[in-house]
Amino acid sequence: MASPYLLGIDTGGTYTDAVLFREEEGVVAKAKSLTTRHDLSVGIAGAVDAVLAQAGLSPSRIGLVSISTTLATNALVEGQGSRTALVMIGFAPDDLARGGLAEALGSDPVIFLRGGHDAHGNGTPLDLEPLEQVAAGLSTDVTAFAVAGYFAVRNPAHEIRVRDRLRQLTHLPVTCSHQLSSKLGGPRRALTTLLNARLVSVIERLVSACEGFLQARQIHAPLMVVRGDGALISATEARLRPIETILSGPAASLVGARYLTKLDQAVVSDIGGTTTDVAVLHEGRPKLAEEGAVVGGHQTMVEAVALRTYGLGGDSEVHVDERGLEARISLGPRRILPLSLLAVSRKQEVLDSLEKQLRATHAGRHDGRFAVRTGVPEALAQGLASADRSLYDRITERPLALNDLLTMTSQKAVLDRLVARGLVHIGGVTPSDALHVLGWQNQWNADAARLGLTLLARRKDGAGREVAASAEMLATRIVDGTTRQSAEAVLATCLAEDGAGAIDPATSLAVDRALKRTPGIACFSVSLDRPLVGLGASAAVYYPAVATMLGAQPVIPADADVANAIGAVVGQVRASATVVVTSPEEGRFILSGAGERLLLAGEAEALAKARELASDAALAQALSDGAAGAVLAVTEEVDAAEVEGARKLMEARIAATATGRPRVAVG
To answer: Taking the complete model, does pTM exceed 0.85, yes or no?
Structure first.
């Protein structure tokens, strides 16, 4: 019997990719469509309809749909996300200074409640009164709640009570920290929970858009989402734990890279519209981050591939520093809308505005830059300060030149806040525009790109000279800068993997000489011990030169442009559960971590029960995550000591992992 067709979808910051895959044939068809942030289903429909048309396939023959996405990653890198209230149970205000929690919280509200537990799960009374006083008011100011309790991984009772009460009072989504991690470290677990709550609306929009499209096309197949460690989870679970989809796209690209190249040892770099993601394949598998994923400067507790994400991509903001005697060009980390893309839907408005700026006698401070609403639901604009709301109301879906929008210097900070909230896009010059000017990219509007680069090129450096003599010369400098920053990103990741992370390729003179191949009595060189796999739509433009800089063999797979979507359908479901056994006193063993806390009398009985609970929880979670069947593996870490000649159990961690392929509909 022939295997079913699998549909892989990757929703990135710029493009939505789709592939039709079959085990015996590999990639059957592939297509791209612009990601439509105002309504993600439009971009999904464009890509999926195209691959179905290419293959001449009836939608009813699709047995599985799997999505990978960079939306959650991009939201954290760009500092975006819905306004969220954090509830801290048993913590003090000073705890916000730990684990980067205060920085991540920003201006979002936080509520402290008395309560929490100790290391053995024994609790102190929970006081809900402060929550009762503010919950109703917060329901119109935030879109979600995050709840973190002291030692909640040992006893989640207080988190559950707060969650249930918040749902009664506000009817808003609530995330509890014990649902996301079994590790100790309250502030970092609170940070992870806060970020998860902020991302609920991001992933909800994606899953709902995909479900709506599948229903419209009569595709009755299970819907899966790629996690940050490359495993698959059901769409239902992704809605509850969206934080687990950070690094989903990069993880899928690693799975796809392994499938496409069959390489066991490689450095994999995926350049997208918003980010460049770099990781190392070792013995055919990506390494997992031991301390949890770091994204957008946030150290989370999310198990994910050990990669580095850089704010560098085709849509990175181009900065020109004119303060020195020679203008310097740098890229990112913020993603903006390329002028060539902005002009696709609003061609005449954008071209007319750019041409007017070129005709002006004096250059404007914000020439070549526009503001436009992202099209997200109005509910996400809740809680705006009066100054923010005033500026936001002036911005519409039609591109508005920043020269006309910003009449006071202070408004620039207001605009940046609106961008950070994901409410407004900035349009301007990007590497994608440079490629359009050079003729290496042609899918958008090259005229808008040329006008934008011409405006930027005529700006003056500290010596009074123009930044570049022509749009083409500036475009070449931007492409060269993207290549160089890409090489630095790859090298920084490799150095960190080798334990030499203190060397910064962006500032090291020795690295600079090595990358430039600078001749001299002392010659510096650099090389990688394995191939460099370049992924992404523009990989073929940049990565041959990047590999040459780094002394590596370049590998650009034929389907490098859709590696994420391929990785989305060749992965497996993997679920884990951990039960911790502690012994606060002789003859008493406490089990926590997989449901209700248990108290048992014997060590052997406690360990046996812990294995049973962990195994049952892992298998049940694998089933919820969408596995058709699962293989179980159990590991144990037992910490014991000799006390007065007798064995004393300090702590035992029983971890069970269930792995299997996802369920597939039989058409």
So the answer is: no
